[in-house]
Specification:
Blueprint lengths: L2 H6 L2 H16 L2 H10 L6 H6 L9 H9 L19 E2 L1 H17 L6 E2 L1 H17 L12 H7 L5 E8 L3 H10 L1 H7 L6 E9 L2 E9 L2
Parallel strand pairs: 2-4
Antiparallel strand pairs: 1-4, 3-5, 4-5
Pfam families: CAP
Protein name: SCP domain-containing protein
InterPro entries: CAP_dom (IPR014044), CAP_sf (IPR035940)
């Protein structure tokens, strides 16, 4: 457009107004007006607002914090351990039983038995079990038999077992000798070895005698 005509129309602004009026008649003024009125400058505030906001990203700090977060605890709860009693043994009682048994064996014309360390280990283990749990029987609290315990101790040639609760060495030997089955076990001439355990629970002894033929 000629400079003189532009000047007569009131400069660029006047020209824009006239062009806008013409374009409105054709329904496209809203598209052209911003570009003409702004003279090719920065987008208007309305145009900027119309643009979609950039997607929010996860910052490096947030990612690092999430990755370093401690995992939930998965610790399991365990039941209470079985109660135990620290066993003490009366070796004087144990040795006295062997002396008394050998005295009776001499009367029966049988050879004396000797205290065998492995049989003694088995006998003490069972006496400690009985003292800890206050029972008197040949089956252990773990279901073990006398043969099981003697085998664990490493002894071969097991013969039999006697158990009792309470009484000193003299009392328990007298009690066993009054019982026919127990008497036969103690006075069996084929028996070579013996193991005696006297575990104490307070002042109460828990007795085990294991006999063997080796």
């Amino acid at each position: 457009m000629a400079p003189g005509l532009i000047a007569r129309l009131g400069g660029p602004t006047g020209v824009a107004a006239i062009v806008t009026a013409i374009l409105i008649l054709f329904g496209i003024g809203a598209v052209v007006v911003p570009a003409l009125s702004d003279g090719g400058g920065e987008p208007s505030a309305a145009a900027a607002a119309a643009e979609p906001a950039p997607a929010a990203g996860t910052s490096e700090a947030a990612t690092e914090a999430a990755s370093s977060a401690p995992a939930p605890s998965t610790a399991s709860t365990t039941g209470k351990a079985s109660p135990t009693v620290n066993a003490s043994f009366n070796s004087g009682y144990e040795d006295r039983v062997v002396q008394l048994v050998n005295g009776e064996r001499r009367k029966a014309k049988c050879e004396a038995v000797r205290m065998h360390p492995q049989l003694r280990t088995a006998a003490r283990a069972h006496s400690a079990d009985m003292a800890a749990r206050d029972f008197s029987r040949s089956q252990g609290s773990d279901g073990s038999s006398p043969q099981d315990r003697v085998s664990r101790a490493g002894y071969n040639g097991f013969s039999d077992e006697l158990v009792a609760k309470d009484g000193d060495a003299g009392d328990v030997v007298k009690s066993w000798l009054r019982d026919n089955n127990s008497r036969e076990i103690l006075l069996d001439c084929a028996t070579k070895s013996i193991g005696v355990g006297a575990a104490m629970r307070g002042k109460t002894p828990y007795w085990t005698v294991d006999t063997g033929r080796a």
